[in-house]
Each structure stands twice: as C-alpha cells, then as structure tokens.
Write a structure and sequence with these properties.
The structure is a single chain. The protein is of the alpha+beta class. Helix content is 23%, strand content 30%. The strands form three sheets. It has a seven-stranded antiparallel sheet, sandwiched between helices. A hairpin with a 2-residue loop joins strand 15 and strand 16.
Length: 366
Amino acid sequence: MFNLKKIGFVFFALIFILSCSKKQIEFSGKYLTYTNTQEGYEIDYPSEILKPVDGAPSEQVFISNDGEVRLSVSVSDIEESGPEFIFKTADTYEKKEAQKFTVSDKNMGRDGFILKGYSKDKMFYCQALSINEKFYTIRFEYNKKDYDTYRDILTHIVDSFELTSASLAQEKTEDAALKEAAAAGNKNSYDEGKLISFAFSFLSNVYWENNFNLLLKNSSPKLADFVHPEYGVRRFYNPGTTVRLFSAEENFGFDESTDFSTIPSANKFGGSIPFYEKMPKGGFCEESNDKDGVYCAIVQELPTAVDPASFESDEIKNLKIELPNDYKAILKILILDEGFIKKTFYFFDIEDKWFLFFVDDCDCSA
C-alpha cells in the first residue's frame, strides 16, 4: 500500500531541489583587483564568485568553487606585426573554440579581435589585444542560465583591464619617452592604444550588431557600465531647423521617425575595422574623402544646442550646458560609413574612467 504522506514529501522535496538548481547566482557587486607585476597589467574579478589559481605569470586563471565559471588572462610576445598577425591569430583561436562551442560572433579590429559563442549549457567571450609588442587575451566562460548576471560582470572585467605604469615604462622607446616628457604637464594627453582599445570595446558591446537608439530608449543593461550613475546621457538632435539637447525625461528626442531597427555590422569592413586617432574632414553635410572606419580623439569642444526657453523671446540663445567639475578630458568617437558620419559619441574621463555623456544624432538640416 502506498504511503501518500511519504510520496507527497518526496514530490515536494524534488520540486524544491529543482527550483534551487535553477536559482540565479547572487552577486553583491564586490570586485578585487588582481595585479600581475611581472607581465605588467591589472584586472578586476568578482571575488565572491572567482578565486585566483596559482600558475605561470603568462596565464593567470580565476575559477569558481564548482569549476563552472572560468576567467583567464594570458600574455605572449608578438612574433609578427601588422594585420596579418591579427587575422591569423583570430583564425587559430576561432578554430580552437569551435571544437567545443558554436562561434556566434567575430569582430576584427586593427589591434585585436573579439569572439563570442555558446554550447548547450555554456557561453564564452574572448577579447584579444595587441599592445606594446605584447598580445593580451581575456577569456571568460560561464553558465548560459546565468547570462543576465554575468553579462554585467563581463563588461566590468573587460573595462577594468589596463597596463600598469611599470609595463608601459618598460616598453617605452626613446622617441616615445620624449613625447611623453613633452606632454607631462598636459592632463589631456592619452595613450593612443588605450583610446582605440576603449573605442573597440564600447562599439563591440553596444553598437555593432545592436541598434543603439533602442538600447538608449530602453535603458538597456548593456549601457549601464558606460553611463555615469549621477550624470546620465543626453542626446543632441535637430527635429527641425535647430539643434536641441534631450534628456531621458524627454525620451531623448525620439519620435515616430527614429530608426529603431537598423543594426550596423562590422562585417562590412571585411573583417578588420580601421581605427584612426583623429577626426575626419567632412562627412556631415558633404561626403568625406577620408576612409570609412572609427575615428576617436581627445577634443575640447561639444556641439551647441538652442535653449528652448529662448524660443518665446526675440533672441534665440544657445543652451548653457552644465558639465561636471571633476572631468579630465573629452573623448569623441564617431563612425564614418560610406563617407558620412553615422553616429557620434562624447565620453568624459571622470576618475580615470570614460563615461558616455552625449550622443550626437544631428543631420545637416539645422
């Protein structure tokens, strides 16, 4: 004879066990910084989830207690130079990942690449960068069911990676040393490689294969790590003949004509996105003769916008844009496609981290 009480207990116990197995991981947001003095870099890791494992300085590994989540940072010398080395290395990494994963995304840049993929239960992200004759690779593997949690953790990890001053000094040539000495008193002098690396990371996360307008409109978590929690983002746009500056409270100026469907692809560049540390000539109303690609540079000025309060007066005045007192520099990143500017972003350096402050979506009708 069946014991209904016992069967009921077993039934509910199984439900409890299954529900616990599907429970999302808990993470309070605590990170520690790992510094590799021999290879000259530092990177944050979620200390509640991952622990560093002893190994060779050329490859530091961080593993979760259950072995399901793994972060690794490897460093090697660059034996060749130029884009051919990047292409060849990316192909090698892709073939290796394809043994266990479906590689779903591959973005190539002048100084590195990004691979993303998945299997039945896992996901991985791999970013490789060529800096100062060294090849740095960050790889993160995690459970697919915990994607929502690890997406934000991954963004933090990648953005936290930077070379230490000792490493930069070791790789310095005499010419570079002279340039740095000349710019020592200029708080707005930045390393070209770092600017390009940041632009590459930002665009790979929220621009390529995404509709940025839709991410901005929906306050997507993908943008969270690029947006300052106090200042937020504002958007320059000219719905008529005048440029206005719109905030989130004003829906960023989005209307029925806004494009929420176009998804730009890095594949149009033939596998290698060109980056330039300058601004192109033209590209706004007239077609630019410069090559298509990503342009990034430190700038001193922002676009201007009309003060809407002055519309009722006889004299239209420019809006006084309030800026934070503690910013160090402004980084401008724009995408030139088929000779015309498709998107422009302005980042502010606050406490040595770039935050997106303004998006410029104006056209030449103003």
